[in-house]
Design a protein that fits this description.
InterPro entries: DEAD/DEAH_box_helicase_dom (IPR011545), Helicase_ATP-bd (IPR014001), Helicase_C-like (IPR001650), PriA (IPR005259), PriA_3primeBD (IPR041222), PriA_C (IPR041236), PriA_CRR (IPR040498). Its cofactor is Zn(2+). Belongs to the helicase family. PriA subfamily. It catalyses: ATP + H2O = ADP + phosphate + H(+); Couples ATP hydrolysis with the unwinding of duplex DNA by translocating in the 3'-5' direction. This is Replication restart protein PriA. The structure is a single chain. By secondary structure, the protein is an alpha/beta fold. It contains 19 helices and 30 strands. The strands form 7 sheets. It has a 7-stranded parallel β-sheet, with helices on both faces. Strand 1 and strand 2 form a beta hairpin. Helix 4 packs across helix 5. The longest helix has 15 residues. The protein is globular, with a radius of gyration of 30 Å. It binds adenosine-5'-diphosphate (ADP) and zinc ion. Adenosine-5'-diphosphate binds next to helix 7.
C-alpha cells in the first residue's frame, strides 16, 4: 500500500521553515510571525531578536504561544539577527502580558517600556588598550621607550595611549612610534564587569522594634517567601533602615533588589543612604537618564551586574535575571500611577511582578494608601509597624491656625501666629519650611476694571503668573505669554491684579517680613533634576538657608535635622474639587510635610493655616490619630461602594470639536454593558465633562464604570469597546483603577 505523505501531495516541497512569534515594541495587539533562517537554531521564547517591519529593523522578543499565523509561509520575512543580550525572563514576559491585559493596552506598548533603548541591545563595541608585545627586550630600549615599557611591566593591563604616555612621563609620540615599531600591541579591554563591593558600608544598630521587623523581612527574603508586607510607622521611625536590611539579605544571597521610589530624580538623600549602607552607590533608573546611562544600566541589570536598583516606576520593567525582593517606598504616592500611554499603577504591578517571581514585596509608608490597608484588613498583606520616631526625636506638635479668627493682612498670606512662630524659630537659629503646593506668583490674574480673567486658550485653566520670568503660563499645556501692560479686554492700564498666592509670592512676602533671613525657593521652576535638588539639600544641611519655601518637591523624604517649624500656607488647597481621594491625599501630603519638622533632637512644630479647622482632615492631622481618620474614610468608601471596596474604570473621550466629543460619549453610553448601563455588580456613570474639560485643545468627556470587587471589569470593558461605534475623529482612552478623577 502507498505510504501517506503527511506533507500532502506536494512531497518535493522543502520541509516547512520554523516560524516564531515576535512581539515588537510598538502599539500592536499581538506578536507577528517570522521565519527562522536556515541553519539557525530555533530561538526559544524570551530571545531578543532583530526583526524587519516595513522598511525598518526593530528589536523584539520571541513571544510565547502562537503568533498570528495569518501570513502564508512564502511571504514570511526572516529574522534579521539574534541579539547578544540575555533573554527576557519568563517572569518579565508574563508581567508584560499581565499589564497589557489589566490596562487594556496593546502588549507591544508595554514591551516598549521593557526595551527602552534600542542601542542597549547592540553588542558593546570592544575597546582596545596597549600592552607590551611579547618578546620585547626591555633592557635594549632607549630611555623614553624604556620608561613606557617599565610602566607596562609593572602594570600589565591594557592602557589607553594617552594615559600610558602620561604615566610614563613621555610625549604621546613615543607611544605611537613604539606602536608602529610593533613594540606595543592593542588588545581588547575587558568590560568593567566587576560587581560593586557592597560589604564596606555600615549598618546602624537597630532599635528593638526595627530589629524585629528586619528579622521578619530578612527571613522572608532568605526563604524566597512570596507575599506582600506593609511596613508602616510615622515619618522618621526608621523604616528605611529596616528595608535596607531586606535589600542586604537579597544581595547576600546573590540576588538583585529593586527599590521603587516616587520622583526618584529628586531623592539624592535616599541614594546617599544606600551608598552609606552598602559602601557603593546603587544603580539608578529614571526618565532623566542620558541614553548612554540608560544603555549601560539596562545591560548591567540584564547581566546581573547591578545588585541594587533604585528607580522610578519604569524600573519595574528592567530585565532582572534573579530578583530577590521588591520594595515600594512611599507606596501611597500617586506618582506611581502612569497617567499617559499605558496607564499602569507601579505599586500594584510591583505586587504582580513579585508574585510572578515568587519573591516578597515590601510596601513602605507612614500614611499607607487605603488600598493597601484594605489588603491588610483582608489578610492579603502582612503588616509590620514601627511605633515611634527613632532616637530622641518626638512627633511634631500639630496646630491649626483658624484664618477666620486671625486672618493675614490684606494682600498677604501669612497670619500673625505663623509669622510669630517663624520669628521664634529663626531667632533660635533653627530653620523653617513654608509649604504651598502651587508654583509661580499667583494662580489667577484679573482686571480690576472689567473683571477679565486670563484663561489658557487650549485648556479649561487659568494662566499662572510667573513673575521672575514675567510670563503667564498654563500648567497643563505649557502655553505661555508675556504679562501685558494693559488689559486685553478693556484696555485699562495698571488694572491687572494677581489673585491668590503661589510660592513666588510667599517668598516675596517673606523677604519683606524677615529681611535678614536667607530664603531658598524650591519648586520645579528652581530645581531641575537630581543635581540642583542635591545642591539645595546640601545648602540646607550646612545651614546656609533659614527659610525654605517650597511646593511638594520639599514635602517628601527629606531629612533636615535643623528644621523645626513647618508652616502650611493653605491647608485647604487639596480638599477643593470632588475627587474621591481628596481627603486621603490631603492627609497623606500634609502629614508628610509636617514630618519634615523636628526630625533630630529639637522638637518640631507644624502650623496649618485653614479656613475650616473642624474639617475631618484638619482634626486628624492635629490629633495625629491616623487610625481614626482611616476608619472614617474607609467607612465612607464602603458605604458608597467606592475603592478599595469597589472597582472603577474610566473611559476618557477626547476630540478637537466639542460636538464630536459629545457624539462619541453618547455612542459609548448607548453601547454600555447591561441594561441601560446597569447590570449585576456594575453601573455606568456619565458621560460628564472630564475634570479638565478642555486640555491641550481637546474637548474631554468621561464615563465611569463602577463595579463590585468581584466583577471582571476588563472583560466588561473589552466587550463594551468592541461594540461601541465611536466617530473616528474621537479618541477613547481607558484608565483602569484611576487614581484621580
Ligand atoms: P523613615 O524611613 O521611617 O522616615 P528613616 O529610616 O529615614 O525613617 O530614619 C529617620 C532618621 O533616623 C534617619 O536619619 C536615620 O538615619 C535615623 N535612624 C533610623 N534608625 C536608626 C538606627 N537604628 N540607628 C541610627 N540612626 C537611625
Ligand atoms: Zn493650557
Amino acid at each position: 500500500s502507498p505510504t501517506i505523505d503527511p506533507q500532502g501531495p506536494d512531497a518535493k516541497r522543502p520541509a516547512a521553515r520554523a516560524r516564531v512569534p515576535v512581539l515588537l515594541p510598538l502599539p500592536l495587539a499581538q506578536a507577528y510571525d517570522y521565519a527562522v533562517p536556515e541553519g539557525w537554531p530555533v530561538p526559544p521564547p524570551g530571545t531578543i531578536v532583530a526583526a524587519p517591519l516595513g522598511g525598518r529593523v526593530l528589536a523584539g522578543v520571541v513571544w510565547d504561544g502562537p503568533g498570528d499565523g495569518s501570513v502564508p509561509e512564502a511571504k514570511l520575512r526572516p529574522l534579521a539577527a539574534l541579539l547578544p543580550v540575555p533573554p527576557m525572563t519568563e517572569a518579565l514576559r508574563r508581567l508584560i502580558a499581565f499589564v497589557a491585559r489589566w490596562t487594556l493596552a496593546p502588549p507591544g506598548a508595554v514591551l516598549r517600556m521593557a526595551l527602552p533603548v534600542p542601542a542597549a541591545l547592540e553588542a558593546p563595541k570592544p575597546r582596545f588598550g596597549l600592552v607590551l608585545a611579547p618578546g620585547v627586550e626591555v633592557g635594549s630600549l632607549p630611555k623614553a621607550r624604556a620608561r613606557v615599557a617599565a610602566v607596562l611591566t609593572e602594570a600589565p593591563v591594557p592602557w589607553a595611549a594617552a594615559e600610558l604616555a602620561r604615566a610614563a612621563g613621555v610625549g604621546p609620540g613615543v607611544v605611537s612610534s613604539m606602536r608602529n615599531a610593533g613594540l606595543l600591541v592593542a588588545v581588547p579591554i575587558p568590560e568593567a564587569a566587576a560587581l560593586p563591593d557592597l560589604t564596606t558600608g555600615s549598618p546602624p544598630v537597630l532599635s528593638p522594634a526595627q530589629a524585629e521587623a528586619a528579622r521578619v523581612l530578612r527571613a522572608a527574603v532568605a526563604e524566597r517567601r512570596p507575599g506582600a508586607t506593609l511596613l508602616d510607622g510615622v515619618t522618621g521611625s526608621g523604616k528605611t533602615e529596616v528595608y535596607l536590611e531586606a535589600v542586604a539579605e537579597a544581595v547576600a544571597h546573590g540576588r538583585q533588589a529593586l527599590v521603587l521610589l516616587p520622583e526618584i530624580a529628586l531623592s539624592a538623600q535616599v541614594i546617599e543612604r544606600f551608598r552609606q549602607r552598602f559602601g557603593s552607590a546603587p544603580a539608578v533608573w529614571h526618565s532623566e537618564l542620558s541614553t548612554a546611562r540608560r544603555r549601560d544600566t539596562w545591560r548591567a541589570v540584564a547581566e546581573g551586574r547591578a545588585p541594587i536598583v533604585v528607580g522610578a516606576r519604569s524600573a519595574l520593567f528592567l530585565p532582572f535575571p534573579d530578583l530577590g525582593v521588591i520594595v515600594v517606598d512611599e507606596e501611597h504616592e500617586a506618582a506611581f500611577k502612569q497617567e499617559e500611554g499605558v496607564t499602569y499603577h507601579a505599586r500594584d504591578m510591583a505586587l504582580v511582578r513579585a508574585h510572578l517571581s515568587g519573591i516578597p514585596a515590601i510596601l513602605v509608608s507612614a500614611t499607607p494608601s487605603l488600598e493597601t490597608l484594605a489588603n491588610v484588613e483582608r489578610g492579603r498583606h502582612a503588616r509590620l509597624h514601627l511605633p515611634s520616631r527613632h532616637g530622641s526625636a518626638g512627633m511634631p506638635q500639630v496646630e491649626a491656625i483658624d484664618l477666620r479668627a486671625t486672618p493675614p493682612a490684606r494682600g498677604q498670606f501669612l497670619s500673625p501666629p505663623l509669622v510669630a512662630a517663624i520669628e521664634e524659630a529663626l531667632g533660635r537659629g533653627e530653620q523653617a519650611l513654608l509649604f504651598l503646593n502651587r508654583r509661580g506668583f499667583a494662580p489667577l490674574t484679573l482686571c480690576r476694571a472689567c473683571g477679565h480673567r486670563f484663561q489658557c486658550p487650549n485648556c479649561t485653566a487659568w494662566l499662572v503668573e510667573h513673575r521672575y520670568v514675567k510670563r503667564l503660563e498654563c500648567h497643563h499645556c505649557g502655553h505661555a505669554e508675556p504679562v501685558p501692560e494693559a488689559c486685553p479686554a478693556c484696555g485699562a492700564e495698571g488694572a491687572l491684579t494677581p489673585v491668590g498666592p503661589g510660592v513666588e509670592r510667599i517668598a516675596a512676602e517673606c523677604r519683606e517680613r524677615f529681611p535678614g533671613a536667607r530664603i531658598a525657593e524650591m519648586s520645579s521652576d528652581t530645581i531641575h533634576g537630581a543635581h540642583s535638588a542635591a545642591h539645595y539639600a546640601a545648602m540646607i544641611e550646612r545651614r546656609e538657608v533659614d527659610l525654605v519655601i517650597g511646593t511638594q518637591l520639599v514635602a517628601k523624604g527629606w531629612h533636615f535635622p535643623h528644621l523645626t517649624l513647618v508652616g502650611v500656607v493653605d491647608a485647604d488647597l487639596g480638599l477643593a474639587g470632588g475627587d474621591l481621594r481628596a481627603a486621603e491625599r490631603s492627609f497623606q501630603l500634609l502629614h508628610q510635610v509636617g514630618g519634615r519638622a523636628g526630625r533630630a533632637d529639637r522638637p518640631g512644630r507644624v502650623l496649618l493655616q485653614t479656613w475650616a479647622p473642624d474639617q475631618r482632615v484638619m482634626r486628624a492631622l492635629v490629633s495625629g490619630d491616623i487610625d481614626r481618620f482611616v476608619a472614617e474614610e474607609m467607612a465612607e468608601r464602603q458605604a458608597g461602594g467606592w475603592p478599595p471596596y469597589g472597582r472603577l474604570a474610566a473611559l476618557i473621550v477626547s476630540a478637537a470639536e466639542a460636538s464630536v466629543a459629545d457624539a462619541a460619549a453618547l455612542a459609548l453610553r448607548r453601547a454600555a454593558p447591561g441594561r441601560g448601563g446597569e447590570g449585576e455588580g456594575f453601573r455606568v456613570l456619565g458621560p460628564a465633562p472630564a475634570p479638565l474639560a478642555v486640555l491641550r485643545g481637546q474637548h474631554r468627556r468621561r464615563l465611569l464604570l463602577k463595579a463590585s470587587r468581584s466583577t471582571d471589569v476588563q472583560a466588561l470593558l473589552r466587550d463594551w469597546l468592541s461594540r461601541a461605534e465611536v466617530p473616528r475623529a474621537a479618541r477613547v482612552e481607558v484608565d483602569v483603577d484611576p487614581v484621580s478623577f
